[in-house]
Amino acid sequence: MERLKAVLETYAGIAPQRHGGEVATLLHQGEHVSHAERHLHGMLQHLLAEAAEAGDLRSDVPPASSPSTAFTP
User: Fold this and answer.
1) pLDDT band with cut points at 50, 70 and 90 for residue 69
2) How many Cβ atoms from other residues are within 10 Å of residue 48's Cβ?
3) pLDDT tens column, 7-65
4) CA distance 73 to 61
5) CA dihedral 18, 35, 25, 8 (to 10 degrees)
6) Is the dihedral of CA 69, 8, 39, 50 positive or negative?
7) How many angstroms from the chain centroid is the CA of residue 15?
8) CB proximity list for 48: less than 8 A, separation 6 or greater
């Protein structure tokens, strides 16, 4: 659970920096960004699965019904 917490806290600190106008939009497009987002998504899935197996996650909240409900910054 500590690894998941560390990743989420780090991402929360980085995510607000992604906004920055036209230059940021131009820099944050392309395959390298898509690859990084897929890598982050996979890492979060793995960490969440570990936490679930360890019984560290709440069981009173149902999972999202589809990937379209996922958060996109």
Assistant:
1) very low
2) 15
3) 999 888 877 665 566 666 666 677 777 888 889 889 999 999 999 899 998 888 887 76
4) 22
5) -10
6) negative
7) 10
8) 4, 57
**Residue 44 carries which side chain, given as an amino acid letter?**
L
Query: In whole angstroms, what is the distance from residue 19 CA to residue 16 CA?
Result: 6
How many Å apart are CA 60 and CA 63, to the nearest integer? 10
Predicted TM-score of the model (pTM):
0.62
Query: CB–CB of 51/4 below 8 Å?
Result: yes
Overall residue count recorded for the chain in this entry: 73
* Amino acid (one-letter) located at 46: H
Per-residue tokens: 69: 């409900």
- Report how far residue 27's alpha carbon sits from residue 19's, in angstroms, rounded to the nearest whole number: 11
